[in-house]
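#structure-requests
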Amino acid sequence: MTAFVVALGFTFVNLGQWQLDRLDQRRDQNANVVAHEAQPVVPFEQVFSREITDADQWQRVEVKGTFLADKQLQARYRSFDGRTGWELVTPLETTTGQIVLVDRGFVERPPGQDFPRTFPAPPAGEVSLVGFVRRNEQGNPNQMTPTENTVRLINSDALADWVGRPLVNGFIGLIEVTPDQSAELEPVTPPPITEGPHWSYAMQWFAFTAIAGIGLIVLIRNDLRDRKRAQERKARAAAAPDPAPAPDHTPSQEATHGSRSD
């Protein structure tokens, strides 16, 4: 039992520490969002010249180019602002000849409806857009591999073969574009500046650890108490005198058969 509780406590402590690590990551993300909100929009080439990291996310960049309308991709099973749906990804060839993926926005999927097979066309000709810097999403390689123009995760490294041309690292989350695009596409904004439930989850795991430890102590104390009581009963039983033999009430022969004369 002790070994089990120790293993359980070790697991709970690690889960609590994991939640604290998630809290630190969320705080760093919030700090990035706040810092980048105060910064001016920067040219595309200033950021998309290297591998995009978490520290680069949610900067605003501006770029000009032409959408590759024949290479649209539907990112399925997305969530935004408490809703579920899909996002539309379209490559953009910049005026400098680079290709960057652009997440053109979110579309809510009504319950019970299948994903659409046709997508809103991008604005034709040269466009000017402003968007958020996004790093490549990570996960199962199968979720990054397009199937019938659909994908689960947006990763430029995994989608380069599908586009058929080299892609810059990361992608852009569209904020606004000129000329305007379809009104049904909703820009994906940064996550809310909150710390989420990570602190309370961490405290819960640590509380479970304390409960397991206290429970073990109670079990050990009860076990020792029961053993002590059993030993005391045994000692009292050994010290008690043997009981006197019970009197023999069997009738004598004479009483049974009466006196006998010669």
